[in-house]
Task: structure prediction
Amino acid sequence: MEALIEEPGTADTTWESRLEAKALIPGTSTGVAFKLWVGGLLLVLLVGIVAYVNQYNNGLYVTGMRDRISWGIYIAAFVFFAGISMAGTLMSAILRITRATWRTPITRVAEAITVMGLITAGVFVIVDMGQPLRLYQMYLNGNWQSPLMWDMMAITVYLTSSVVYLLVPMIPDLAFFRDRLPGRVPHVQSWMYGTLSFGWIENPPQRRALAKAVAILTVLIIPVAVSVHTVLSFVFSTTVRVSWNSTSFGFFFVAGAIFSGVAVLIIVFAIVRRRYHLEEYITERQFTYLGYLLAAMSMIMIYTNATEFITKGFKASDDDLFAFRELFATKFAPLFWFYFFGGLVLPVLIVAFKRTRTITGLVVASSFAVVAMFIERYFIVVAGMSVPLMPYEPSSYMPTATEWAIVAGGFALFMLFLTLFTRLFPIVAIWEMKEEHETRVEVAP
Amino acid sequence: MIVDLRHCDGCQSQGTAPQCTLATIEGHLLPEPMEWIEVYESPLEGGGTQFVPTPCQQCQNPPCVNVCPVAATFSAPEGVVLIDQDRCIGCRMCMAACPYDRRFFNWGSPPVPPEALLADYSMEHQVQAKVGTVTKCDFCVDMVRAGSLPHCVAGCPQGAIYYGDLEEDLATNGKTLVSFKDFTTNNNAYRLKEELGTHPRVWYIPGHGEAVGRDPHTTGRMPTKWPWIERAKGAVTWKR
Result:
């Protein structure tokens, strides 16, 4: 492999040539493990598609949802995937604005997670619809008053802008791939690099234009991201359901999005780092900082949950008490306490102690956080709907095999997108790292 | 609509399931388990229960209409909230928004008796039910226009349900004619969950069937049956 990427004249492994060589690895190498992984994902995806075809033919009858709990795990998955899409914006935009240079090696993958997360979230909206072929009605007869309409607009804008935000800073790196990879990859692939690098030849006007475009996008995407997660919460909090009746839901969803986004980032980085041998660039430092972020967001989540439960529990209306009893003591109690202790408290503890603040420790903490956040989305949706509105027996909901298969298919889709991205695109922001390296070298005598 | 709860005994005296519900099922050929007008049994302060027939409340400020992303559910000019099942995308946001649990989803291919196949679909009648869309009580506006009373009003053996026009200030249960204003004011009428600001157009006169001799401590009502379900080929039914 090393021989493959060796270029004449770069035998002396300078920092720069080493980086370039490393960046080219994913684009040129495939192993058995990779093929097995992709094959496995395709299989799960296929099962999901078969389950969906079955659902499409028989109606949502094949799900566990019914009139009284009319949203279920699909909407939970929708909120979850929309949530982890916050990762990219946080890493690239919020941290770029604060000039946190440690995030440079990891921005690209984070931005990719944003795009893939949003696409998967969109898939779950369509999966949940009773008449998916009528989606065009949203464009034809959209009702501007509806939070779902705001949601669709916000997500469409977010998806568009995050695709642009993924692509624009990638242009110099795509040009690098365009120049270095022909002959080693299929023709279509090098054609793609050529097209997507938009004639980048790295002259000063192009560099200035790029810097300006990135700066503008950075500022613009932050309010878009925040609005997406806020509006998403409005889908719930604009109804009169007692568990969703909260003014802090917007903030809560944004915090949850950042939290789950950071957790997903840590897991993905750990995998990418090992798989593509990027230990030199994605170091312990990145993981430690991400760990701090994880712990901070985790504490914000604990805080938000506490304010919500204390203010509602103090007044203790009958419906609130019913919801609390289900959440804390009966139906959803195992899920809730796992979420609280496993997903919120445990990550803080793991990050707090130096001995556990290792990459393995952080991956464990993040895995707990990701599972817990999916569970949290699940009980927000389902527990919120299980409070009876009229004098009837409380109903229950349990996802059916079809729903599990489709949700698993959704996860496979997300991972497949991400795998193919890391395989086909420059996953390290080569030019940004070079730039920063240069400034560092200049500053340091 | 005004429901005089003093006259509603949940059809305990008839020995049947509530006949307003049954008449609605027959009239709209409703798939099981839809009860567009559902007779809830709720506890009274001092023990015992009352029966509360609950159709769609036809709110003046309808939460369902406000949240529908494609305006498939809307307030008609006469004030009734209707659903266009040819436009509904099946997102079920309206079901999350309705505070009265009065919206139903066609989860599967709805069972239809043969006669339903002859019906022309109209938003005011909603026969036949369409899979993957939301449906609910439509206040039988098409029947009223043709000069007859809604199924539930005509079906009530005790004359407990009055139907009329707010602007004309008239309502009838098919036997007597009352002034809406006088009848509601004189009998302390109330509306369900009035505090939500939905302004329902269904008023209730407090009671527990005392006018028709019901003992509030005799609880329970007969379960609803869907009489034609055997005749519906390939019927799929589900639980609420």
Observations:
- Chain A has a mean pLDDT of 87.
- The longest helix of chain A spans residues 204-237.
- Chain A has 18 helices and no strands.
